[in-house]
Amino acid sequence: MPHPPRPPHQPYPPHRPYPPHSPHPKLKAHDLTRTFGRTPHAVHALGPLELTVAPGEFVCVVGPSGCGKSTLLRIAAGLLRPSTGTLEIRTSSRRPAAMIFQDYGIYDWKTVRANVRFGLDIQRVPRREANARADDWLARMGLSDFADAYPATLSGGMRQRVAIARALAVEPELLLMDEPFAALDAQLRTILQDELLDITQSLRTTTLFITHSLEEAIVLGDRVLVMSARPGRIIAEHRPPFPRPRTGDIRATPEFTALRSELWDLLRKEAVPA
């Protein structure tokens, strides 16, 4: 299956600072923990954890397998309850968050357009408006020619583009992404990283992004948070030294290489006990 052409670069708005500064975080976790099971077989999976995400900020979280990264994201999405502590999302919408999963999470029996429109249908957006918004996002993601196709006929990268379009079509105040490119080959992963970078720099959607890839975190993030081995806690924070707007060309810089090495030194110490 040939990949569709990369969508055109979305121009970066020059008149607003990035990320916007606000005394009120979009997301705030305080003393957050999550335990699975019951004593004596309980598994302490997460925390205690402190986290804030500012409006318009793109925060990447890296950590060893099993450290609770996905658990954190599912609590933020309302799919899990914390065992103790709180996680608050400051929002003006009844449906503030959209989540993108590693396994796409799209419906095989719906067309591409119907998948992208799904969240709008749930919100009871009038069909004409919903189709127009879905078609707009299909165009942005280079999928217009596949609007009437079914997911089974698409490549993995195209399916993930459908998932991203579906999430952004509802105009979420918070975008939650759980290793969305992990199942893709290295070349396609790089392409989709760059596409996501273009989109999020244009829209300024507040994003919490879980990944195992240090390269991905540095390219995309305003901040990179490193989690410890289970139970996961935030043990380090780094701000990639690349101003916005940025492009994937930063991968070739000495600063990129140095930060990747520094993050790997931290992560390696946690991965061994994990």
Automatic annotation (TrEMBL):
<dbReference type="InterPro" id="IPR050166">
    <property type="entry name" value="ABC_transporter_ATP-bind"/>
</dbReference>
<keyword id="KW-0067">ATP-binding</keyword>
<protein>
    <submittedName>
        <fullName>ABC transporter ATP-binding protein</fullName>
    </submittedName>
</protein>
<feature type="domain" description="ABC transporter">
    <location>
        <begin position="27"/>
        <end position="254"/>
    </location>
</feature>
<feature type="compositionally biased region" description="Pro residues">
    <location>
        <begin position="1"/>
        <end position="22"/>
    </location>
</feature>
<dbReference type="Pfam" id="PF00005">
    <property type="entry name" value="ABC_tran"/>
</dbReference>
<keyword id="KW-0547">Nucleotide-binding</keyword>
<dbReference type="InterPro" id="IPR003593">
    <property type="entry name" value="AAA+_ATPase"/>
</dbReference>
<feature type="region of interest" description="Disordered">
    <location>
        <begin position="1"/>
        <end position="28"/>
    </location>
</feature>
<keyword id="KW-0813">Transport</keyword>
<dbReference type="GO" id="GO:0005524">
    <property type="term" value="F:ATP binding"/>
</dbReference>
<dbReference type="InterPro" id="IPR003439">
    <property type="entry name" value="ABC_transporter-like_ATP-bd"/>
</dbReference>
<dbReference type="InterPro" id="IPR027417">
    <property type="entry name" value="P-loop_NTPase"/>
</dbReference>
<dbReference type="GO" id="GO:0016887">
    <property type="term" value="F:ATP hydrolysis activity"/>
</dbReference>
<dbReference type="InterPro" id="IPR017871">
    <property type="entry name" value="ABC_transporter-like_CS"/>
</dbReference>
